Amino acid sequence: MTRNVSLGTLALVLVLAGGPLPVFAQSTSSDQPAAAQPAAAPSDDGMVTVFTASKIVTMDPGWPEATAVAVKGGRILSVGTLQDLKPWLDKYPHKIDRQFESRVIYPGFVEAHSHPVIGATALTRPPLSYFPTANPYGPAFPGVKTRRAALAKLAEYVAASKDPSADVVAFGFDVVPMGGYLDKTELDKISTEKPIFVWDASEHFVFANTAAMKKRGLTKDLAMKFPGVGLGADGELNGQFLGELPTQYVLAPIITQLLTPQIAVKDAKYLSDLAQQAGVTTMSELAFGAINIPLEHEVLKTAFDTEAANQRLVVVVEADSFVKAYGANATAEAKKLHDASNDRLMFEGVKFFSDDSFLSFGMEMQNPGYVHSDKYHGVFMFDKPSDFVTSMKPWWDANYHIHVHTNGNAGNQATIDALDALQKEKPRFDHRFTFEHFGISTPEQARRVKALGGVVSINPYYVYARGDLNGPEIGVDRANTAARLKTLTDAGVVVSLHTDTPVAPPRPLEEVWIAVNRRGAISNKVLGPAERVSVNKALRMVTIDAAYTLGVDEKVGSIEAGKFADFVVLGDDPATVAPNAIRDVPVLATISGGRVISTRDTRKPPQ
After folding, report:
1. Domain named Amidohydrolase: which ranges (predicted)?
2. What is the 3-state secondary structure (H, E, C) of 574-586?
């Protein structure tokens, strides 16, 4: 799923890769954003603010509900009733904030896997998405439902681009409902002169016309360097670059141009505002350094390392990029970032890749594989399993929290086997090795994850948005049991939910709704009903359990004394409304370190 935006005339004249889309997420001002000061602790003048509500759900099993929470210096002082808070209120000057007295307060939602740098860059390109997705500042882009409609929309973007030297980069082409990959032949019919890059909905594939490949200097020798680079019958590049590695290589120069403060910070703000409107108070960056480490760091510092930010950010470095940049010093350089973390910008962990994308069928599937194996095939991100283990070993030995992007059941099996090998060489406890996505899995794999001490972060949109689409290609049984939740939790595995934005929009209450109902977006049928979980369990997956899989559960995820005062204010209680109404519960505000942020305010485009 991709970003939806309003497509007026103004949008169509701003389709160049060299600039964002002001009508959606950007200001038309040429002023560069002021550099943010490093986050400082909130001023503590001794004053306590007490927020009251009709119900406060804490996610602390021993103290589950309250009606008042006291905040001092950006942290929770105490939670309970006003009478329970009396010992603290007798000690400190205080004020009672009753603006949410008739509302429901939960811990601020935690987005356990997103991409506010590259993902936000993708979201602010001209859209070609199949599914509609909300725009924080206006109407939704409705989506394009056929291949012909997608190509027609792309032709509009190309026609609107007046600079002959500028690339057109569109995002969100959805391979499965659109009938397969694009190639240079189709794209050359739109233009043989204008460079065209089509970035697919998974972010892992890119398709290019002849002009784009020529400008980028791409030759057939690239096929020897990366798996997934397509060659035609003539032995020349066919315009298909399938997989995270070739896509990163092809798009890196373009994305680097977009990582300037006046563009990238506003792109990050776009995603941050979208997340705030859904109640997210802690975001994550799960691929830091994939394009340019210094530029990405500057963007994150400017966008998130400030008390004015909507969210805190947990940053996970990408191992391959750090090894390429720093060699044998990669783990030490990552530790420097960790040691320099503060309350707003927290560097925690390292990321690896097992297999490729779920959306575009780059994931590796066990026997019987894909129904149309001549059309789709998976891609492993390593040459052989021993290389996979070897790449992780220095980080494992240095006690890093390891996250692994893994999707198909063959990819998941390879990741489980790698964790097994690491544990045998150096046993670790509470390592929180996190299986990211875990799209297609088996009950046996759930048991092994538990036995090895792993945790799992699931993308529930793999069943909601993809279950109806994927049956013809991987079988109805596997498509409907994608994003297993009850199998994992019954096995005792800690599970969080995420959206992998821009794969899906950051909407925690919709994630909970999916986990509880498991209805297909197209058919509205219940898909894999035995994998549904309770509302309370699903709510934990976007609060305390999400914080746990990120390694920050001692700071956020529940309303407990000493933690950051990060809350979401809701118009109703998702635990008590009808299951089908969970995603419709209004998000009225978030509270970050005691600072109230109204969702009304983040619906205004930045100036």
Report:
1. 103-597
2. CCCCCHHHHHHCC
